[in-house]
Hints:
Strand order of the largest sheet: 7-8-9-4-3-10-11-12-13
Radius of gyration: 23 Å
Number of strands: 19
Strand content: 15-25%
Shape: globular
Structural class: alpha/beta
Oligomer: single chain
Largest sheet: 9 strands, mixed
Number of helices: 18
Amino acid sequence: MYCLCCSRYCEVKWNMKVLWLCNIMLPMIAGQLHMETSNKEGWLSGLADAVLERRRENGIALSVAFPVGKNFPAMVGKNGAMRRISPAVKNGSSSEHFGKENGEFLEGGVFKAVLSVRENNIVCYGFPEDVSHAERYDEALEESLKRIVEDASPDLVHCFGTEYPHTLAMCRIFPRKDRILAGLQGLCTLYAEAYYANLPEHVIHSVTFRDYLKQDSLVQQQEKFARRGEMEREAIGLAGNVTGRTRWDRAFTQKWNSGAQYFHMNETLRKEFYGPVWEAGKCIPHSIFVSQGDYPLKGLHYVLEALPTMIDRYPDVKVYVAGNSIVRCSTVKERLKLSAYGKYLLRLIERNELEDRVTFLGKLNAEQMRDRYLVSHMYLCPSASENSPNSLGEAMLLGMPCVSADVGGISSLFTGRKDGILYEGFREGGEGASQEDADRIADSLAAAVNEMWENPGRMQEYCKNARKRALATHDRDRNYARMIEIYEMICNGVGQEAED
């Protein structure tokens, strides 16, 4: 394995069977199965690549389990061989035919395939789960995961994320709680508390035609996060070991499970963000990039409230927003599909005359995201709550100007007045619903953006510091080595105090 002490690869003296429990089918697996690839969590493929490439050093036999949807197995052949993948699962693409050498179905609707990657085998398991309703716990998950555990017989289970029911199911059924490693990503309990992000009461309780049909009003959305938080806390309470990255997630882990071992482990980002460096002369002047804004927690409404103040100082300022656009309303059908939050964003845009100032880019893949960062004059994180947003890490890694709300765990990876500018955002534990508080946040946001652009020399120093820090935080070799080190400590029963 790669030794952090001597900075070289040492011969491994053990063999370890590790099962990863992921929230999505990894892109590297989807590609081999000719399935549509998700843009989410692409960094996990790089991590899996590293584990497989260094099999001789780490001694790990890797299996990966992931949800595939309730109607994944359309047809099953003799002896459990998979004959066809449902077109519905492939989102409209043609069916693919597989022989038994490619995959088979086990009991409980579990699909198993053995793939060859980097001259090594990786065993993958797809299990049925409706991830579009992550607030619902289906006890059938337990039977599916039991079948996977029986087949894989892992020494250790690493759950990447605690925000889906399958993690709770795994924590319930896996007999060795001291061999469960739960990796924290977001914290749904705390996101639920901050979900409304200072929205006016009349907006919080409004229900559009779309919201009624989908049973997905803002109140219902918040309740879903709260229910996911209940499952998340139970999962963390059962897990013997937890990885996190911030003082914030460590504090709540200890509150919810004081007996769990907490291991500090940074994340590796998507490969597209290693190498390119932002250049001031190649960006669109006074353009702001926001990576997501389709629900209140992400704080886009704060940006729209702050824009008039920015425009007073920088008349050419524009905002570009990636992700789902929830403000389209050019047709009757699109108007009927507007959510309450989408309607509120539209009202802010119209009231502040921002029609030519805000552009919604839609979903972007990793390359498109990277290119948008590089042509933007600033990355802005206006969220009401975050643990350690990968979008901020990506912006820092590219060495671009960054401004962020000082919420959640952000200050553990981004230092204000050194790596960029932190402004006072949503106040955890406060009432957080008054217009006065919303105005305070918008004013603080606008002041931070204006300050960043007022001193180009200081801005360049921030960019340099941010990139240097991100290169260390998101170093692929060190993060891979840290993960292997944690696996070894858990399997050998060795504890360790968490790092800040």
